[in-house]
Amino acid sequence: MVCLKDFDIIEVAERLGLQFVKNGPGNERIYRCPFCGDSTKHPNKGHLYVNARTGVFKCHRCGEEGNAITLWAKYHRVDAKTAYRQLRDGEFPECGPVPGESGGEDSGAGIDERDRVYRKFLGLLKLDPPHKADLLRRGLSEVQIHNNLYRSVPQDARFRWRVTRYLLEKGYSLKGIPGFFTRNGRYGPFWDFVSPAGYLIPVKDVQGRIQALQVRLDEGKYIWFSSHGMPNGTSSKAPTHYTGGRGKVWVTEGPLKADVASALLNAPFVGIPGVGAWKDVDGILEALSCKDPVVAFDADYRTNPNVAKALGDFIRSLKQNGYRPLVASWPASYGKGIDDVFLKLHREEVSSVTLTIEGVPVTIRRTVTTTVSVGK
């Protein structure tokens, strides 16, 4: 079941276009308050404190406070039930910055430039042992982890400054690159990048270009490497990920889940940003000339009406656009996600797993090379 903790309040603030002012103490970010407008005498000061860890906000000027759902509801002047539904289903009304103010966001660099900057950027970072251990636990090999360019988000401010300075000195523009923004320092503005504690997951397009980065937080949640609303910042726009590979194309939830499942099955996967965020899958399938993708949403669609609705809407949309989607299901004992299913084979906990794809049993066995048998 989708619950409050599944809604990241920072992402909600970014989607609303709130004007970022600066990082506050601990896990807090400070924004201009959209409810009282803050002080017109001091346009560069904000009083809305948003806590990324606890998921709550409070304006220390007008007293408005609440959680991610409350923030969305108050901004759009809807009730909490409507706000919950809109966030759950990805039904986002057009939002913008606080009237009369600007977050200074750039329209965004082109995909080739983003790919060029991100690859150089990731090459300057390292992967901390706990993050590497998490990826190994998921079933990825040392080579796959290296090739996929996972990196830890640097927490040291001076190191981040050295990274951005190096990129600029080497001729890489950071303007329009999601995640990067400018700060005001003693000697004038300087470039920095957002630094939530966690590791970076490259999100690629069908040509293998890095179009955005997602962050797997140490506490287990996922957020986008986005600087929307910050000075000279840019939104990631939460794109869909494609792993590359040959064979039958699968569609599942999340870039990292897609990477793991692709590595374990040795097949191409499309990783959508969320159960209700499948709008651009159509274009990816068209580019791949794939008419019959296997859709493998998490197994909780049987018990979670929200996931079931999103899956149903996705399947209907694909069929309306001329596709022939094949829905995969599996026993709950195999695990929640398709990556969990294949991990059982990888760990040799079972010798085979049987999925049901459009009513037909498909057995996948772990041998020297994975074999797939239909109807057995």
Feature tags:
single chain; 376 residues; alpha+beta; DNA Primase, Chain A; DNA primase DNAg catalytic core, N-terminal domain; Dna Topoisomerase Vi A Subunit, Chain: A, domain 2; eight-stranded mixed beta sheet; five-stranded antiparallel beta sheet; 19 strands
Explain how this protein is built.
The protein is α+β, with helices and mostly antiparallel strands. It has three domains: 4-89, Zinc finger, CHC2-typedomain (DNA Primase, Chain A, Alpha-Beta Complex); 111-224, DNA primase DNAg catalytic core, N-terminal domain, CATH 3.90.980; 241-374, 3-Layer(aba) Sandwich (Dna Topoisomerase Vi A Subunit, Chain: A, domain 2), CATH 3.40.1360. It has eleven helices and 19 strands. The chain has helices at residues 9-15, 68-76, 80-89, 111-123, 129-137, 142-147, 157-169, 255-265, 281-287, 305-320, 338-346; strands at residues 20-23, 28-31, 48-51, 56-59, 65-67, 151-152, 180-185, 188-193, 198-204, 210-217, 222-224, 241-242, 250-253, 269-272, 294-295, 326-329, 352-357, 360-365, 371-374. Helix 1 runs parallel beside helix 2 (68-76), helix 2 (68-76) packs across helix 3 and helix 8 (255-265) packs parallel to helix 11 (338-346). The radius of gyration is 22 Å and the shape is globular. The two termini are 33 Å apart.
In CATH terms, what is the architecture of the largest domain? 3-Layer(aba) Sandwich
- The fraction of residues assigned to DSSP E strands is 15-25%
CATH class of the largest domain, named Alpha Beta
Total domains = 3
